[in-house]
Amino acid sequence: MKHFEKNITIKTEGASENTARLLAYIPDTHEAQGIYRIRPAVLILPGGGYEYTSEREGEPIALKFLTEGVCAFVLHYSPAPARFPQALCEALTAIGYIREHAEEWKIDKDQIAVCGFSAGGHLCASVGTFWNKSFLESYIGTDREKVKPNKLILSYPVITSGEFTHQGSMDNLLGNNKEAELLELASLENQVTKDVPPSFIWHTYEDETVPVQNALLFASALVKEQVPVELHVYRRGGHGLSLGNHLVQGEMQYGETHISSDWIDKAIRFIFD
Description:
hydrolase activity; GDXG_lipolytic_enzyme; BD-FAE-like_dom; Rossmann fold; 273 residues; 28% helix; AB_hydrolase_fold; Acetyl esterase
């Protein structure tokens, strides 16, 4: 396995220069019948309310994808006091970096998924809705296909800035700038177009931190635009479950799993489908 770290430095308008960290987990390639296997890749965006990036939703997720032959990358993007669109530009730049090196790392450049958790789910959905928008050109250039995500995986995502929002995420993302236009832009169920890639979404009915309506709003918007979507709502469980096992849940006994823990197996099938 190749494992290394890459810094991504971007300065957005009105913001100080920020540096994001991209951690790569790339399986070794083995010659089989004279050819090398080309693999899909996934860019992982941990949650943390745009206040920090959770370690529980980073490397453990990457290693699970890695065991199934998916090249995994974890982006520790810039949280507050960095504001929108800093983290978004970092995530799109990371996709471009992965695609640039696709041939070297035996990655299928047309199979780069993005997987986000909670506020990282909002960032993931932002990547999916804004990747081809002109207001980002001054930060990441005009070659939109270079930064295009091919699939989205949204784990208990923050989506809306409306009634069912996670207010802490919005406060950290937007700061004191709560103009109606920007709040509307951050409400991603209203930004869905046919250009959003196929999406996999999972949430829990009992989530009291980020209500399940966030997932339902985004899924409904995707259906309206005829974008393929797979949605799973687990009847039990709170927020921030990650893998839903003893590796990421300190109160669980060895070998214990939550009912939601099969989400990642479903997501891996979604990537390869």
